Amino acid sequence: MQKSPRNSKNSSKASDRNPTSLISSSKTKDPDDQLKSFRICAFTWISGLLVMLGILKFGNPIILQDQLQTPKEWIEWIFFAWPMETAYALFAAWVLIGIRALPFRKSTLPKFLWLPLIWLGWQFLSGLFTVDKSLTQTVLAHFIVLIGLFYGGYFLLSRCDSLHGISIMATIGLVITMWSGTEQKFGGLEATRQMIYQQSYWQTSYPEAFLKKAMTDQQWLQTVRSDPNLLKNAAAEYGFSSRLEYAGEEGSPLERDLAFLEKIGKDRVFGTLFYPNAFAAAILLLSPFSLFCLWNATSRLQTPSRLLILACFALWAIACIYWSGSKGGWLVAMIVMCLAFLFAKVPRTLKVGLVFVMLMGGGGLFSWKYQDYFQKGATSVGARFEYWRAAWETSLDHPVLGTGPGTFMRAFSKIKTDGAEMTRLPHNDYLQQASDAGWPSAIFYAVWMFGSLYWLRPKKLGDHPMREVIWLGLVALALQNFIEFGLYIPAIAWPYFLLLGWLWGTSEAGSTPFQKPQQV
Q: Which residues contact 507 (CB under 8 A, 6 or more apart)?
């Protein structure tokens, strides 16, 4: 139906009276704007794919990459971990796509955000005097990727205010790894133990009696691993003395096998990651983000149905942390939930009540669950204190440049007490910075991390839900890293630094004068 000339004339006059409407209309139809929106949307999905692959395929600590074998058949590429060379290729492709797709970037950088480059530069300076060039080169390559992800989040991803692509892909990755952990809980670990008895490698390398003893008596296995004399006696008793000739080698088959037997025998789930505590850390980091994604994805449902779905997912995540046996993960989850209550838009008395119930209920269940563990001496806590003591002493002996990025194990092997279990990482990212690269590195890193979390903290929940759930996840991992080594696990560190950069890019301190973040 054609418009009358009179209507056309009136429309023309209205446009003349309101030229901004005409400009707005022309902008919405501008092919360049549509292309930019498409590029932003595509880049968020590609970034999400990178995060998802990190969770599923790069869950081993960076310094253990030499023990990974490159998959040969397509089925192995689906189910096994990938080598870091693949990760670096994916990262390089991500950078090239981002630069090509999003040329309209920020032109300024806040003074505070020069700190990551200063920290990285100090790592390279420390690396010039490292005690192990191979370990340091591996860790430096990993750090370059992390810094690239941080600035990629700041310069590139900050053009998008919603992160639908990343939230969906990260949620898929988290669901898969939680499903893997659930499968391990309900038969998967037991099936693996039975498979060990049947595989030719284990049959020819170790007697069945030793395998059964190792997987059923964890305290005995830990004692044997930490004492060379006891290991020698066990080898003579069970008849695998020929394996001892490799015991002194770096990443020896015997060391690898005993660690695997201990891991499988503990009956703690670990999903697609290296070990249970890393699995719990991934859930702490991404579950708030995933809950927000599910809330948006169920927008067409009624509110009770949406809340039921979120409650089921949250309970599943809590169950996975419980099955992982991560005591630190349990405590950090309680702290983060208390933070969420404190920031919530509810009366102060209700906030205090919720925090009290959380601390009393969660703390009571924690004490009940792990009462036997503490009665037996809390061996893992004692081991961590030994690691921290060694890292502290190393940092005092090498206060300026440390022993080199990633070389804690070299220093620990020389100063550990008799009977202490060998480790490659001190289970404290902040203290390891001082041990590996000196106190300046530790200060740079701590100021960068906690300064960012303080500066970017939400004033109250509900003002910007996406930013708030991401912030809660980042806080959870930052706290977890006081007792773990998330900085050195790509599956955890990748999304952490990418999302931290995005938070800075979309904050008032990091906003660009040229363009606001776009909704995609």
A: 455, 456, 467
